[in-house]
Amino acid sequence: MKRRLVVLTAVVALVATGCGNPLAGGGEGGNNGAIIIGASDVGESLLLAQIYAGALRNAGAENVTVRPPVGSREVVVKALQDKSLSVVPDYSGNLLRYFDKDTQATTSQDVYAQLKRKLPAGFEVLDQAPAEDKDLLVVGRDLADSGIRTFSELGPRCGELVMGGPGQWPSRWKDRIKQLYGCTFKEIRTTDTGGPVTVAALKSGEVQVADLFSTSSTIKSNGFVPLEDDKHMFPAQNIVPMVAKGTLAPDEVAALNRVSAALTTDELIELNVQFTDQKRNPLDIADDFLARNHLKAATPG
Questions:
Q1: Where do the structural domains in the chain lie, given as residue ranges?
Q2: Architecture of the CATH domain 2-132+239-292
């Protein structure tokens, strides 16, 4: 899922800096004790970074910055290694695949357990959230009502159906879906990576099955039906903070763990709707999330 790579352009630069007395937290620190939160230019990543920042300030950290880094996941990993970044929000399945390209883990529990084992020295992952943003196959209401609600029910019908998704879909999933579900689509058509081209193709009937992301607001707004991946073809992609070891104090770690505990997929969908559809300021969205979940960020001084 290319969208999940921390592909960074300096198109968006949201910087939120704490104020007040010298740093009250930050563990050992890598920036004179400052906590630097990395984010990609994807709205969801920026929102999560602002939520992390607010929670950390509420825990007493007074020097917190949200800074979109510039580079690929390799660059982000290097920045965490040298502690020029302290923490980044990421996705469990993609992180595991980055550190172990041969992994066969798919469920949330297995992916997270293996991720913790495979992390190199100098990194740690905090508690993962229940929230996931992962690949889904979705269909229109009519096809769902004809008896297709799971991948297993889709399998015998695949030969009648055109599937739309990103260009890398055949190389990553064509053989896997055949192996697990006996599914060979009539055609796999390249649309885009969970974006407007894919949505338009499914709405028009150009494709009957589409790969979208589980937190996409377009699923509900268009009445699409997500299918249950009952044999776990797509790996879990739980939201998880990846941290440069030693850059956060224990109470700051606890603050981010409380954020993860409160973050469900439904909540993440609503955050994305507010940012993408309602065009709300991400700082306001983050502040409302923290208040709603009794994690209210401290007011900057």
A1: 2-132+239-292, 135-226
A2: 3-Layer(aba) Sandwich (3.40)
Task: Copy the structure tokens of residue 124.
Answer: 């740690």
pLDDT digits (tens, 9 = 90+) for 257-276: 999 999 999 999 999 999 98
pTM above 0.85, yes or no: no
CATH class of 135-226: alpha beta
- Give 180-223 pLDDT, tens digit per residue: 999 999 999 999 989 899 999 999 999 999 999 999 888 988 99
